[in-house]
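[Protein data]
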Amino acid sequence: MTNIALVVGATGITGSNLAETLIKKGWTTYGLSRNAGTGLSGLIPVSADLLNPDDLNASLQDLAPTHVFITSWMRNDTEAENIRVNSAMVRNLLNALAPRKSVQHVALVTGLKHYLGPFEAYAQAGTLPETPVREEHPRLDLENFYYAQEDEVYAAAARDDFSWSIHRPHSVIGKAVGNLMNMGTTLAVYASVCRETGKPFHFPGSSEQWNGLSDVTDARILAEHMIWASTTKAAQNEAFNVANGDVFRWKWLWKQIAGWFEIEPVGFDQMIHPLEQAMAGDAEIWKEIALKYNLKETRIDRLASPWHTDLDLGRPMEVMTDMSKSRKLGFTVYQDTRDSFFDLFEKLRTEQLIP
């Protein structure tokens, strides 16, 4: 039987890497986004607004996917709005697909805010879990749009009789333009500005992050994990952490990143140096850099998301994930984290997104 994938959020870090992997594996792959163009060969674009049920119904009326991969979300000013908007996006999508009765599996990507709390109460004392975080950890007694998204998937699965999987990556490292949560590219842009201007390449985060253990999730690993869970019976109807499989300390990795860009690293100096402040005046500098090196993107906000990198690197605790659940069920794919960053930097340079 032919596998037909619908990747929701096909222009993002997770969705674009997933779509590319599915196509390589021979899946018929549709990519849904508000603006249909992705430039990925073999991807069938679908343009639709997830918050407009009529638009969704019209765009999806002739589509009968067997597997749905939800990688999209929308940031709002409050968590209450995050819940209202992001749960509606999932609900509208699954309602629009229900009449065809073609869906066999739905995979939803959330993240470690499942354990650390929403943006408004992120990693605050009194709510912090033991690490490594494990899937068995109960939901926090806090409003969280990840929980609302999960509940929409569970309700639709019970109604329409499909299986599901929930995927909780750590910081996702991969290439995308216009993404809201993009640590790898943010650090590449920051390092490029530091190299060009001579500004110090300060580690922006906390002592706990500098000295503690951490891990990240390569977008390619996440893609493989989602496909594995959606096609492995033992992995159905389960939530999973997903990370590269190694651990590191930022005090080591910061030097590695600085070395790649041929600049001097400045480590933790008893102060947090938020990237939002450090990069606040870099928009015009980036335009000049882009013109000088003939780069494809002159808008720094299309590449860098310092607010999100500050959230991750400013946490008052070390954070890493336990992947025993996936390993026991047969997922053994591994990725070296230094290579995740270096591969990304090389791709950004090759595609003329950084100098």
